[in-house]
Amino acid sequence: MNGTKTEMLLATGVSIPSVSTCCARNRPWRISRAFIAALGAAAALAPSLLAPAGLRAQVASPAAVYDPASNPIAVFAIGPSGELSDNYWNGSHWVWQTQGTPVGTTSVATPSVVYDPASNPITVFVVGDNGSLYDKYWNGSQWVWEAQAHPRGTKVFGSSAVYQPASFPLYDFVGGANGKLYDLYWDGSEWAWEGQGTPPGSTVQYVGGAVYDPASTNPLYVFVVGANGHLFVKYLNGTTSGWAWRDQGTPPGTTAITVPSSFYQSKTEDLSAFVTGANGHLFENYWNGSAWAWVDMGTPPGTFVTGAPSAVYDPSSSSPLMVFAVDNNDHLSVAYSSNGTTWSWRDQGIPSGETGLSAGGGLSALYDPASSNSILCFAVGASTGNLYANYWNGTAWEWQNQAQP
After folding, report:
1. pLDDT tens-digit profile of 27-36?
2. Is residue 6 included in any domain, yes or no?
3. CA distance linking residue 254 with residue 305, whole number of Å
4. How far does CA 169 lie from the centroid of its chain?
5. Domain for residue 387, yes or no?
6. What integer pLDDT is reported at residue 137 of this predicted model?
7. In a domain? residue 13
8. What is the pTM of this model?
9. Using H for helix, E for strand and C for coil, what is the string for 153-193?
10. Is residue 14 part of a domain?
């Protein structure tokens, strides 16, 4: 960076036991029942998480987007007072901009941002503390708020937006407090709500991982984690133009406990979704060309994963698959792979002056094809509450303090 030029464990008031209560140092570890119970309690609260309570002294929930038509990188986040803010690269330095809150709310949560090259280029969706969905978009000259309300009979939580040029261009998927999945989509002339029902035998606990697959007859997918710890995917059937659920099961030997992250990889034309297991391992669920398969990616050496992952695909790299996560040492770790079946781990450390990173603060990884700083991961400091960027400068990884709005 430095003059040169990417959904999370939702924030709760639940405290996660420290490593001293979870495992013995320098010994083979296993996660304690207390740790699993704490994460389970966090999961149980998901439908009521309409604002990141407990994170009011810091930035939270970064959501990054690459916009080749304008300022190339922007990171939307929840500011210290619960307002929407963005941090963008103006070509020479980073600038904070406060977007405020929609009329009728005092705070917002879970921003999800999408780039639409065919229309208003940047749209960011948020959930208000009143349980309604809102979006703010750039109309070419200014930012505009839109109130999208909520499906009849329920409030919403979470948000996962995707651009899908094959039909209706923009979708945002959310969970309902009633346990159902919903999407809001632009039908060409107006926004419309669509009910997606509940996963087979369960209800929606975490929403994330909406992804467009241009090589598939089923072009649109959204991954969710159910209350039963299963990963589910709902996909748009390109043949029937209808939606269908698929139960992906649980990660081998455990259950899924966080918001999933996903990407489409153009080299192999495959989809991958990533979740954290209750045993502290990171897992991949991917399409191998003929069937869905699970891969246990293990843990960072000597530690385990405590937050939701953020995955990014870099087609220019020899190891194009990367998944970032915060471990129980409060370090940023990254798992990387050339083929999606064999994974290696690297400790990215922590920013200078920080005691660690906040797993509850969220992560957002981004690929920037126009820069030598091709991969960036945005994270939140545990002691200062500042936003940080961990980026590849072409030869090494560096940290940069993005501060706060």
Report:
1. 333 444 344 4
2. no
3. 14
4. 20
5. yes
6. 94
7. no
8. 0.86
9. CCCEEEEEEEECCCCCCEEEEEEECCCCEEEEEECCCCEEE
10. no
